[in-house]
Design brief:
7 strands, 54% helix
Length: 442
């Protein structure tokens, strides 16, 4: 009878909680530590005194991060594993048994670590995620603005594109200062709005000015402005981290501008140039749909060293973009993977590229959408974009846009080759049509 080899008799497993850490060495009797800073240092010293070189723990909420950072700085190899991969036998689950089970699996080399960005990328990631939370909360107060206007029967948000644009904010602040005349309020709007929408805007600004709704409007505006200030503060911190990571600016050449972002894009001077230097002087924004703010978010999630994933297939699978395999006996199927933050960013890029009218990848999206639907086409295009992103950062390959016409001509060649092969199989001849019909591409 063969037994599993014991690869590391000093492998440690930690069951992470909010108040306690249960630690076991290769499945032996556990030891309990607290989660305060002093207790984490005591855990580090105890592991080092016992000759431990490698530790495995589950990714439990945010509780694992402090322990991970302390052990990482101590030079220990820390594996952060998926909780689904270390499930214990049902009916026998306790924190003590969990840490023993994790340590046993780790000692036999049966655990694989998930991806944890290096410390400098985690700094950037924390600022970016905090900024994203502020953007989400600010959007909720825009809804409160619209609700307060609706309760006063002021239909401003129906006739202009955004109530928090330049014209919308001027009108709202004038209303809060006591102005009620629609003609005066219309005069605060942009010249184009006055030229093309004067009658509609003036009619939409006739409302019922109840005190309680004006109070709600005032509070919603104040809270939205507070979050705009916090977003600007995050931008300044992100800029400081980027300048530290990207290194000194180039002294020669005119800096190339990046792709323009949307309303919620970071307002950082020379963002494009810093991202290029951070990516090893590689302009990754040549990929369609990849603007500077999206690249910044991707760098905050995966960093710039993608050699952690041996191939592009490993990277796209980690993003959750290709379907997972499921085989049982002779039955083979596919199961959906859960997309992480990076995978969702690539899907966002795919939605943008799918709307283009001159890109080859846009033609790929529409062709697949006609056969399989928009959801499948979006995920397939996102997988292509993720693979191109990996190639750019790992191999330095340059993306060259071939254009929609070249892509469509290649599709026609492929279909013609397939038709000829099918005709030969059935003993038929494929003859060209003297009056070809115009092709319609979805």
């Amino acid at each position: 009878m063969q037994t599993l080899p014991l690869l590391d008799p000093k492998a440690a497993g930690i069951d992470v909680g909010s108040e306690t850490l249960h630690v076991s060495l290769a499945g032996d009797t556990p030891k309990v530590f607290g989660t305060t800073t002093g207790q984490l240092h005591a855990l580090r010293d105890w592991l080092q005194a016992n000759g431990v070189a490698s530790v495995a723990m589950e990714a439990t909420g945010v509780y694992w991060l402090c322990a991970y950072e302390v052990l990482e700085r101590a030079g220990l190899r820390v594996l952060v594993v998926n909780g689904k991969h270390v499930k214990n036998l049902p009916g026998r689950k306790t924190d003590l048994k969990d840490c023993q089970w994790i340590a046993t699996l780790h000692a036999h080399g049966l655990l694989r670590s998930g991806f944890v960005p290096p410390e400098h990328i985690r700094r950037l990631q924390d600022y970016l995620r905090l900024r994203a939370d502020h953007v989400t909360l600010a959007a909720s107060h825009v809804q409160h603005l619209q609700k307060a206007l609706e309760r006063m029967n002021v239909k401003l948000h129906d006739v202009i594109s955004s109530v928090v644009g330049v014209s919308g904010l001027r009108v709202i602040r004038a209303i809060l200062e006591g102005q009620r005349d629609p003609a005066v309020l219309l005069g605060l709007c942009d010249a184009q709005i006055q030229k093309h929408k004067a009658a509609a805007v003036q009619e939409a600004l006739r409302g019922t000015w109840k005190a309680e709704h004006l109070f709600a409007l005032k509070q919603a505006l104040a809270l939205w402005e507070v979050y705009q200030e916090k977003i600007a503060e995050c931008d300044r911190e992100i800029e400081g981290v980027l300048r530290e990571l990207a290194g000194p600016e180039a002294t020669q050449g005119t800096p190339k501008p990046g792709k323009p972002g949307g309303r919620n894009s970071p307002q950082i001077e020379h963002l494009h140039q810093m991202l290029v230097r951070l990516c090893g002087d590689q302009d990754v924004t040549v990929l369609p749909g990849l603007a500077d703010h999206t690249l910044l978010s991707l760098v905050g999630e995966v960093g710039t060293d993608l050699k952690r994933w041996p191939t592009e297939k490993h990277f796209t699978a980690w993003c959750g973009l290709p379907p997972g395999s499921k085989q049982s006996g002779k039955r083979r199927g596919h199961t959906a993977r859960q997309r992480n933050r990076a995978g969702r960013l690539f899907c966002l890029m795919a939605r943008s590229v799918g709307r283009t009218v001159d890109k080859a990848l846009g033609g790929f999206y529409r062709r697949l959408k006609a056969r399989r639907g928009g959801l499948v086409a979006n995920q397939a295009l996102a997988r292509k974009l993720a693979a191109l992103f990996w190639r750019l950062l790992v191999h330095g390959k340059t993306y060259v846009e071939e254009g929609l016409k070249k892509y469509e001509s290649r599709v026609v060649e492929t279909e013609t080759r397939w038709l000829r092969k099918l005709a030969r199989k059935h003993g038929l001849a494929l003859l060209p049509n003297p009056t070809p019909q115009p092709q319609v591409h979805g």
